[in-house]
Design goal:
48% helix; four-stranded antiparallel β-sheet; 21 helices; 626 residues; alpha+beta; eight-stranded antiparallel β-sheet
């Protein structure tokens, strides 16, 4: 499958979410753009999902998540430039956080951990392979080779409070360097040396000392308090001394406060949560493993797995391993196995083109979003069978006491991270059984006539266009034909969404411009996507910004999956309602896969009637290849 134009994807997504004025913040994880929008009602989810290069859109955890796949860093770089967002991905919000408690918590955790995710994953692989080398006596732990490699892999975890201080300060609107100073004090050698001491006091106040290296929760609470303290101090201090006095006072207060109060209380809280997880895995490992293995990918779909990341990392810091991590590899690799089975059975070349590389990515790198959104979830049964395989495999792994010894993205390459605790052989058996369950169930029962229609490719914008095809697209409505550049919508007028035309309608009867299949029908009734028999994809958009009318005045006459002939009615619109609401009623028709086609020539502007050709489209093998 050809790589999408990253700049085009970024600009189309920006347009689809309502422009840069509608963005509060933007960041990305392994496969997703994670956007916080000021008004989600301005985002056109279906339009975004139709973009070549976008796998899906998920709204969860208070975020508008655009699933891109492995190319998300490339799209993110161009997206932030197009949106005028600084390198930190933040735009100052106009108002306070909104949403339910769970959404706010998930958004909080993801915003803090996302910036360091790839670094954690990368050094964790070094740590995992180094542990394997020690396990098989391939390296001398007393030698300098081990010392250097161990420092490279362990430094991030040892000084994790400092890394988290930076991202937490950004999230809590606190001074990042003051936050680093506070975190640095927690892992300062003389403080670490006192972690096992008794009778420690500060100004006569007893201090319960403990080690804060690799800790997570204490620094997060400390920086949260720091942010509030800084804002109060800045209000009461004179401006002439504010710049240096604020960090002086905040550090002077927060370091002792964290060691005396915040650290012990939050550590006790974290240990309590960790003990609860340990209890489940020790006393009912089969149930805990089945639940985590079965539902992990479901949590990933909605971004809810971030809520478990602090628990997992806290286990690694306090215990040196995490039982919670044990069932996860089976969940990930089971979905990849289901995708392999789909690749064997499917009759769709486009679906196979997503399934094969996506499965390889899932197995080797643990990145499953491409196969989840492009293959398994749209077909449903493969996803369900992958969940079943993950549950069975997770149960077996948990019964054997499998646990991760470092933070990794679960995959074939990261399996050495599971050597240090429990039965590694049982973990491997669980993974293989989970993959077998998902593979064979999908192979025999997962691909059916209903879910494997060749003309419904996993990513609609990647439809195959036959070389040499020629087609005429007729006017979708009676009225005045105008050039696309004259349409009063920058996204359409610029041609970024494809070549096309506009028609100022004289009546509200909208017809299909081609013979083909309806691949998109917006709930608001204002836009329709049709794929012609030649593979040409056409978007008919009725009015500008009319999605805001929420269907008022629009009457759909077709649904997704319907077959239509050129001239068949697809919708009707009450033009008086549109104009009375203050919207431009221009009907816009663009060819969304224009870059895969040859010449697209628009007719001369003037009066047109339905059925009259207004766009001439041709394709050539040379242009498709190029």
């Amino acid at each position: 499958m050809a790589k999408p134009d990253y700049q085009q994807v970024a600009e189309q997504v920006l347009s689809g979410v309502g422009g840069k004025e509608n963005i509060s913040s933007a960041t990305h994880c392994i496969t997703r753009l994670r956007l916080k929008l000021k008004d989600t009602g301005k985002a056109d989810k279906t339009k975004i999902e139709s973009i070549n290069g976008v796998l899906s859109v998920v709204e969860a955890g208070g975020q508008f998540q655009v699933v891109i796949g492995d190319d998300v860093p490339e799209v993110y770089e161009r997206f932030t430039k197009a949106a005028g967002i600084a390198g930190d991905g933040e735009v100052p919000p106009d108002d306070e956080e909104k949403g339910n408690l769970l959404n706010r918590f998930i958004q909080l955790i993801s915003s803090i951990f996302l910036p360091i995710l790839w670094t954690l994953a990368g050094v964790s692989l070094i740590k995992a392979f180094l542990a394997m080398a020690v396990q098989f006596n391939w390296i001398d732990t007393a030698g300098s080779n081990y010392a250097i490699l161990n420092a490279a892999s362990d430094a991030v975890f040892y000084f994790l409070p400092i890394f988290l201080a930076v991202t937490a300060a950004k999230r809590f609107k606190a001074n990042q360097f003051t936050a680093m100073a506070i975190a640095g004090a927690l892992v300062y050698p003389s403080i670490v040396a006192l972690s096992d001491a008794s009778g420690v006091t500060f100004l006569g106040i007893p201090v319960v000392m403990m080690s804060y290296t690799s800790s997570v929760i204490p620094i997060l609470f400390a920086v949260w308090i720091q942010g509030h303290l800084e804002r109060w101090v800045q209000k009461v201090l004179p401006s002439m001394i504010r710049n240096f006095t604020t960090p002086l006072l905040v550090t002077l207060v927060m370091v002792p406060l964290t060691l005396i109060v915040v650290g012990p209380i939050t550590t006790l809280l974290a240990d309590g949560i960790s003990s609860g997880v340990q209890f489940l895995f020790v006393h009912a490992p089969w149930a805990a493993g089945a639940v985590v293995g079965g539902f992990w990918q479901v949590l990933v779909i909605f971004g809810l797995h971030w809520g478990l990341v602090p628990v997992l990392i806290n286990d690694l810091a306090t215990l040196g391993y995490s039982l919670l991590a044990g069932p996860i590899p089976a969940a990930v690799l089971a979905q990849a196995a289901a995708a392999i089975a789909v690749a064997i059975r499917t009759k769709s070349k486009a679906r196979r083109g997503v399934a094969i590389p996506g499965a390889v990515s899932g197995i080797l790198a643990g990145v499953t979003e491409p196969i989840i959104y492009g293959v398994n979830l749209p077909m449903r049964r493969p996803f369900y069978f992958g969940v079943a395989g993950g549950a069975v495999g997770g149960m077996i792994a948990a019964i054997g006491g499998a646990a991760g010894s470092t933070f990794v993205v679960p995959s074939l390459l990261s399996l050495p991270a599971y050597l240090g605790h429990g039965s590694f052989a049982t973990l491997v058996i669980g993974i293989l059984v989970g993959m077998a369950v998902a593979f064979f169930l999908t192979l025999f029962f997962g691909v059916t006539k209903d879910n494997d229609k060749v003309d419904e490719a996993p990513v609609a914008a990647d439809a195959i266009v036959e070389p040499g095809a020629n087609a005429a697209l007729v006017s979708p409505v009676n009225g005045q034909l105008i050039a696309l550049a004259d349409v009063q919508d920058k996204a359409f007028a610029s041609g970024v969404l494809g070549s096309g035309v506009g028609v100022i309608p004289s009546d509200g009867a909208i017809v299909s411009p081609v013979t083909g299949t309806v691949i998109t029908a917006f709930p608001a009734g204002h836009a329709y996507g049709i794929r012609s028999e030649e593979g040409i994809e056409v978007l008919i958009h009725i009015g500008i910004d009319t999605v805001s009318m929420k269907g008022d005045g629009f009457t759909p006459q077709v649904a997704k999956g319907d077959h239509v002939s050129a001239g068949d009615p697809i919708a009707s619109v009450d033009l008086k309602k549109v104009t009375a609401a203050g919207f431009d009623p221009t009907v816009i028709m663009v060819v969304t896969n224009s870059k895969k086609l040859g010449n697209i020539v628009a007719s001369t502007p003037g009066q047109v009637t339905v059925g009259v050709p207004v766009l001439s489209v041709s394709t050539s093998k040379e242009q498709l290849v190029g």
